[in-house]
Amino acid sequence: MKLSTLHPLVERPGPWASVYVPAVTADESTLQRRDLRARHVQGELRRMGADEGTRRAVDDALSALADERRNSPYVLFAADGDLVCAEPLAEGPPGDAPSLWWSRLPRLTPLLEYAHDEPDCLVAYVDRAGADIELRTPAGRRPVAEVEGKRWPLHRTASADWSERHFQLKVENTWEENAKAIAHELASCQEQTGAELLVLAGDARERSAVHAHLPAQGFTRVGDSEHGGRAQGADGRLLDEDVNRIAADHARHRTDGLLDRFGDGGDGVEHLEALVEAAREHRVSTLLVRHDGPDVAREVWTGADPDQLALRRTDAAALGAERPFAARADDALLRSAVATGADAVLVPADSAHPVGGLGALPRWTYA
Question: How far is the CA of 87 from the CAs of 39, 50, 72, 80, in angstroms?
Answer without folding.
Answer: 21, 21, 11, 19
